[in-house]
Amino acid sequence: MTEGAALDRVRGLAFWRGPVDPQPLGGGITNANFVVEDAGRKYVVRLGDDIPLHNVMRFNELAASKAAEEAGVSPAVRHAEPGLIVIDHIDGRTFGEADVRAELPRVAALIRTAHREVTRRIHGPALGFWTFHILRSYLQALRDGGCRLTADLPAYAALAERLETALGPTEIVYGHNDLLPGNFLDDGARLWLIDWDYGGFNTPLFDLGNLASNNGFDAGQRDALLEIYYGRAPDDALRLRLQAMEAASLLREALWSLVSEIHSRIDFDYRAYTAENLARLARAVARFDEMAG
């Protein structure tokens, strides 16, 4: 959908009480986002098609958004149509990596609450986001699509198997699965967690590893995250499982980018993003190997 068509659709929503002037909101790669003021209130409108290749299905995003609202961790959903959600606009500060690290106790407590309460409140059909299924699906898509790094795919597949073995048996929660710093908002009184495109049932350690990898955590911050989340000091076994999922998160991000190099029509430097994530993955795997002995 072109930006003009998206604007026309947003302007034409029957939800509005009067004429509106949608303003583009940057930052979305899987959505077109707009801020709209109507009758003295501000909203965010999110438009996006299903992206089965990336496990993004809009019925699932809507269900997750409603459950997250009920759980008190995300803004209220005010209106929904196929491929479109209207939510309350949060007047607050969008986090960067340094903010996540500085506010780690609050961030970790929010994730723990989201895992417990969204899992209890989501109803009806809902997707899984089992990390290793996602990785296997991406690897197959890259084989089928003629990936420029085809020669490296067997090594990535072997790494995924090693990491899944290291994770071992796990509890399952409804996770967010995309804990970029920009998905945390601080309104001055509380934190909010937004953008449930990739929501799905998964191990909680994926969200924790994803948070660590996306926000530059050091060893002390990883330990603090685990202690806040689990309510106890981590042992070496738990540290290793977190490191495995941090590496799995980076492998998933790198493969996501490789798939996007082939299939995405969005104007974004995926090749550079792939290189960045493969470099970070190499460092995470080196830490994992050292910890595993």
From TrEMBL:
Protein name: Choline kinase
Domain Aminoglycoside phosphotransferase: 23-230
GO terms for biological process, alphabetical: phosphatidylethanolamine biosynthetic process
GO molecular function: ethanolamine kinase activity
Keyword presence, Ribonucleoprotein: no
PANTHER family, sorted: CHOLINE/ETHANOALAMINE KINASE, ETHANOLAMINE KINASE
Keyword Protease set for record: no
Annotated InterPro entries: Aminoglycoside_PTrfase, Kinase-like_dom_sf
Entry superkingdom: Bacteria
GO cellular component: cytoplasm
Keywords noted in UniProt: Kinase, Transferase
